[in-house]
Automatic annotation (TrEMBL):
PROSITE patterns: CYTOCHROME_P450. It comes from the Eukaryota. This is Cytochrome P450. It holds the Pfam family p450. Gene3D superfamilies: Cytochrome P450.
Length: 168
């Protein structure tokens, strides 16, 4: 950075925002935090999601139907934020859930900076997998929790993945 190299990745931007005040130790800690927070939490959440989804074929079908539909509509390129509101005029207001309701990302001044990125990643992974594959968990499988920074599933989630269109 000090040699005039301008990069636009997250680490380079962080370094530039700190000027010369960052230390290698602080920089290492930031990188480790991003890697652990981003990978561990998202993968754990997806593991638990697919386990829960395996017990609800009706929900899986609704997700698959939604992914398969022209979700954005005929006017996908038009700026119409009201498309996400309830069509009933009496209820046509956006009411986001309280960030304190789902505390995994915390809320208030200590809210997770990667919350929105995690949601985007998880939604796109779920949509991609459910659209193409059926993820089947053995009905008798009961996961064990591992106490760690995130609530992980011991030994992962044993699944059988089948091509949704009938293949293996």
């Amino acid at each position: 950075m000090s040699m005039g190299c301008e990069k636009h990745d997250l680490l380079s931007r962080f370094m530039a925002s700190q000027g010369e005040s960052y230390t290698e130790t602080a920089l290492r800690d930031v990188v480790i935090s991003f890697l652990l927070a981003g990978r561990e939490t998202t993968s754990s959440a997806l593991t638990w999601f697919f386990w829960l989804l395996s017990s609800r074929p009706d929900v899986e079908r609704r997700i698959r139907d939604e992914v398969a539909a022209s979700v954005w509509g005929e006017d996908a390129r038009a700026y119409r934020p009201e498309r996400w509101l309830d069509p009933d005029p009496a209820e046509a207001t956006f009411r986001p859930e309280s960030p304190f309701r789902y505390i995994v990302f915390h809320a208030g001044p200590r809210i997770c900076l990667g919350k929105e990125m995690a949601y985007i990643q998880m939604k796109s992974i779920v949509a991609s997998v459910v659209e193409e594959f059926e993820v089947a968990v053995d009905g008798g499988y009961t996961p064990r929790q591992v106490a760690s920074l995130t609530l992980r599933m011991a030994d992962g989630l044993p699944v059988r993945v089948k091509d949704f269109r009938g293949g293996n």
